[in-house]
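Subject: complex prediction, re-run

Hi both,

The earlier run crashed halfway through, so I resubmitted it with identical inputs.
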Amino acid sequence: MTTTQINTGAHSAGYPDKLLLPQWAEIVKSIPEAEGVTTFQFKFTDPDVQNRYRFEPGQFNMLYVPGYGEAAISMSSDLETAGGLLVHTIRHIGNVSRATSRLKVGDVVGIRGPFGTSWPMETIEGMDVVIACGGIGLPPLRGAIYRIIRNREKYGKITLLYGARTPKDLMFPTEYETWQKAGFDMQVTVDRGDENWTGRVGVVPMWFYHFRVDPHKTAVLTCGPEIMMRFVIYEALARRIPPEHIYVSLERNMKCGQGACGHCQQGPYFICKDGPVFPFSALDKIFNVEEY
Amino acid sequence: MTDKTLNVGGTVALPKPEFDLLLADLRKNGYQTVGPHMQDESIVYTTIDGLKDLPRGILSDQNPASYRMIQTGRDRYFDFIPANQSWKQFLFPPRHTLFSAVKEGKWQFKENDEPAPRFALIGVRACELAAIHIQDKIFLREDFNDPIYRLRREGLFILAVNCLDPDATCFCVSMGTGPRLGAGFDLCVTELDEVFLVEVGSELGRALLADRTFDLPSAFVQNTASQAMERAAQSMGRVMDTSDLPDLLTDHLDADRWNDVSKRCLSCANCTMVCPTCFCWDATDQVDILGKSTRRERVWDSCFNPNYSYVVGGNTRPNIRSRYRQWLTHKLGAWKVQFNVLGCVGCGRCITWCPAGIDITEEISAIRAEVKS
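This time it finished cleanly. Structure:
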């Protein structure tokens, strides 16, 4: 199959010979991001691991909270922007992620990773990019956003479509100005506004109606609820953007991150290893199959 | 006539009582001998010392949702086919401690440094050996090498047994895995009334026999054995046409038959537990009540468990229809793409142990019939 390349040293945190044994990492900083969402900055306890650890935007780690278990969480920054620290933005909604809400600076978690495929940052050089994301789907794309801004001349027009339930749920709002200054066309929308909201109300896919794309030189990166991605893909295909230029990040139950435990399978793929980022051309037979 | 220069590929005749010496030699070499034993009216694989522990004169009569022992009184030890559980439990333990974590100030890991047991598997059938070879492809890959499986696999001694009396649920011929053993064993036994014919399959097997002298089998005995094996190949209880797999399943995810089977399937996960190739696992924390120490374990899991596909906000496969479809389209579909082999060896366990008597061969035929109509 054709997916994006992983060009990092595989699984530099964790032990190849010890199943699921993570590396300890200490919380250096904890930033409340939105209602029920925290951004944590981590540093590995072992300096060798800290020096060796590399990843690409779109990849994920397995975060282990002792006594609770592991959860697959994408990196929400890159090492360059975060001064070498590992950054995860976590919505406290599941068993493990709720446990992380009680963690403080100085606490440790176990980390294994990085796992999975990444956003195709090299493949899409020279193209216009539509980044379409919803809710907690923005953090896995922020590393790609930073990469684009740092290499702004390599990419064409950038459109960022971002939707959240309410204005309070918008993530990283203080950075929007910087992104706009980098020439991003920012389209932020919410499902329900509040008394101070002057922006748009509606769902992400409908903002495709408001701009024209050149289908031959446009790539789409999408991450968010599956229903949102389904309509983003639909709108992109309707504008003749080829399926191989529509990149989708999928979510499934994951226990190992290495294509071993079986949980994340969808059709022939282990989402943790063959994904999470897929070109839609690899998914067209399975993406819309109900409950598959 | 005795054979002083026994080679790999050679066959000797072993008087039945001497089988115990073979097992004793294995134990002397550090192996834990595990094999068939009758317990609670069914055959289990467990630690055995010798012939006295084997199910002498027992046939198993297996049918959908039915497993019965028949006493034949014959002087045979390997007539039953196959045991209720597979050998998977010895290479891929159902429950295994990965590590512990203790909070003394900060959290510390304590690894599980228990040495891996060395098993001698006594009585591995052709379909079961094929299943081990399939699991090798899953657990010992270039991009994932399971340390728990690897250590057990590397230390393994395999004494195989040719099946002479297939059961009503058997279809190894359809899957191309049996009933006769091909390669990949250390020793292979064909059981006749008075002797075991023992074929040497590896250097390890040869070395085990090297210190003893054996009779060579007479032409009559060898002829009897090969006739019995031919008969076995022709007396399969079931047939499965694999010619249009995996496409038959992967191209028909919307077949009506999935609705039909979902009304019978209880989603109990029995089929995945007894399946010799099913490999899914979960990892869980066993934590003390104060939250100061925890033991992380790997345990078998099943695509039929509701939590298996849980993600925050919902369950990918909330219905039995989608779970059964996942199991079958993986085993006889996606498996081929992932591991270049189908995930079924034709042992028939899933048919026997399904409390609703769902028959994998029948489901495949029904989907084919529906698609062609």
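The mean pLDDT of chain B is 95.

- K.
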